[in-house]
């Protein structure tokens, strides 16, 4: 009799425990996110941030030429604005004095039009990815000021006129400032003077007065560089030069720059009466040479002797869950800041679709394996993507 009572009581306890566990499971099931369900597709980023700011991505030649078909459904689902990553820069589009190669750029613009996207041309005037002949005459001697201005005008007129009314905005001048001492000592500055910036905007506006015109640069969170660009934009506006926005390149790390530094720059540029864009966004998870306390020159040695030290390339076999979480947290913090200032920010654009395509795999040290974007090398969403979506839905 005692044994029967004990068995009955034990059975009742078991049933109650099972019921409690079942209820907990149901509660967890109701509250789960797409991050916890492999069968549930994440929501569109562009839809999630509709009414706050546009969500963009840099598109490369392989994608618009159909050689990367897996990327296309993700681009059309998650983004409502695209930027030309490399295919509209001077070298690819104007490789020789009397030769323009428009095929890839044509496909890029057609792709954006087909999917009703805001199209950004990148970039018209830059010190990099530009042929040497641009600054030389037929004898190889350096051009004079007026001759170089004419060459700039001819290039801008030819490219912008081809896409007039189709490209919505242009990164007119790219990376003209330095960290601390004003404008970059480029050939443009050396031959023309600082007015080359004014002329680039004026030439572009003359061809397509309806296009939005931007200045784009990196490390604009740094106080000294911010001051240089604020001064530049003020001068342009005082001289009635048509400039409509500043692109703050978002090449960030897991800890640097601080949110305060980024926020101060968002406010500073917004106060100038121009649009603010977060452009070229990615978050490197790798240590710098300084952080790793390593002196490494990839140009020295060869073969195995030239292999990147493990301290600078710690995730060759994949990213640990703990670092995935750090990346997610960083993106959440960034998008919380962007959402806070949605009245000032017009566009947030990622510099590439997935980790395999990121330029950070080879910069500043060739051969490293980085994981800076929202989709992994197999085109799968990472925890960071779900974190960014949760910020929008919060």
The helix/strand series, from N terminus to C terminus, equals HHEHHEHHEHEHHEHEHEHHEH
How far apart the termini lie comes to 58 Å
> How much of the polypeptide forms β-strand, as a percent range?
5-15%
The CATH homologous superfamily is named Glycosidases
Largest sheet: 8 strands, parallel, barrel
According to DSSP, the number of beta strands is: 8
Q: State the oligomer.
A: single chain
Spatial shape? globular
Read across the widest sheet, the strand sequence of neighbours is 1-2-3-4-5-6-7-8
Class of secondary structure makeup: alpha/beta
CATH class: Alpha Beta
| Tally of contiguous helical segments | 14
Q: pLDDT average, as an integer?
A: 89
Helix content: 40-55%
Low-confidence stretches: 1-39, 301-305
- CATH fold topology: TIM Barrel
The CATH architecture comes to Alpha-Beta Barrel
Q: Any idea what the radius of gyration is? A: 25 Å
Q: What is the count of structural domains?
A: 1
List its traits.
disordered N terminus, eight-stranded parallel beta barrel, alpha/beta, TIM Barrel, globular
What does this structure look like?
- The chain has 14 helices and 8 strands.
- The protein is α/β, with parallel strands linked by helices and 394 residues long.
- The chain has one domain: Glycosidases (TIM Barrel).
- α7 runs parallel beside α9 and α13 (321-340) packs parallel to α14.
- It starts with a helix and ends with a helix.
Protein topology:
Elements: H1 2-31, H2 45-48, E1 54-59, H3 61-64, H4 71-78, E2 81-84, H5 90-93, H6 103-114, E3 118-125, H7 145-162, E4 169-174, H8 187-192, H9 195-207, E5 212-217, H10 223-238, E6 245-253, H11 259-270, E7 275-284, H12 289-292, H13 321-340, E8 345-350, H14 383-393
Parallel strand pairs: 1-2, 1-8, 2-3, 3-4, 4-5, 5-6, 6-7, 7-8
Helix pairs in contact: 7-9, 13-14
């Amino acid at each position: 009799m005692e044994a029967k009572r004990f068995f009955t009581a034990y059975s009742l306890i078991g049933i109650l425990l099972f019921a409690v566990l079942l209820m907990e499971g149901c509660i967890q099931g109701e509250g789960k996110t797409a991050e916890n369900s492999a069968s549930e597709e994440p929501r569109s980023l562009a839809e999630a941030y509709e009414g706050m700011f546009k969500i963009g991505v840099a598109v490369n030649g392989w994608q618009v030429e159909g050689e990367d078909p897996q990327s296309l459904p993700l681009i059309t689902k998650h983004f409502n604005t695209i930027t030309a990553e490399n295919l509209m820069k001077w070298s690819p589009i104007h490789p020789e004095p009397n030769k323009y190669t428009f095929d890839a750029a044509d496909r890029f613009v057609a792709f954006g039009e087909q999917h009703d996207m805001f199209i950004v041309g990148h970039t018209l005037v830059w010190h990099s990815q530009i042929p040497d002949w641009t600054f030389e005459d037929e004898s190889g001697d350096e051009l004079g000021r007026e001759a170089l201005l004419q060459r700039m005008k001819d290039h801008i007129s030819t490219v912008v006129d081809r896409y007039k009314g189709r490209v919505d905005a242009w990164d007119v001048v790219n990376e003209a400032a330095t960290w601390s001492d004003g404008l970059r000592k480029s050939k443009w500055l050396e031959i023309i003077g600082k007015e080359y910036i004014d002329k680039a905007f004026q030439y572009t506006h003359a061809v397509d007065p309806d296009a939005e015109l931007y200045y784009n640069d990196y490390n604009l969170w740094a106080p000294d560089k911010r001051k240089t660009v604020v001064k530049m934009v003020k001068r342009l506006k005082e001289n009635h030069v048509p400039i409509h926005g500043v692109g703050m390149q978002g090449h960030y790390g897991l800890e640097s720059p601080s949110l305060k530094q980024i926020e101060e720059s968002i406010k500073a540029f917004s106060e100038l009466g121009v649009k603010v864009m977060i452009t070229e966004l990615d978050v490197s998870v790798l240590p710098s040479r300084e952080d790793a306390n390593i002196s490494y020159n990839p140009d020295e040695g060869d073969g195995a002797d030239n292999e990147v030290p493990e301290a600078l390339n710690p995730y060759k076999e994949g990213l640990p869950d703990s670092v995935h979480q750090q990346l997610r947290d960083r993106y959440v913090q960034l998008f919380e800041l962007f959402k806070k200032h949605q009245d000032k920010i017009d566009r947030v654009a990622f510099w590439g679709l997935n980790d395999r395509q990121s330029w950070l795999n080879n910069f500043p040290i060739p051969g490293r394996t980085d994981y800076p974007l929202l989709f992994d090398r197999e085109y799968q969403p990472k925890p960071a993507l779900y974190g960014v979506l949760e910020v929008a839905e919060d």
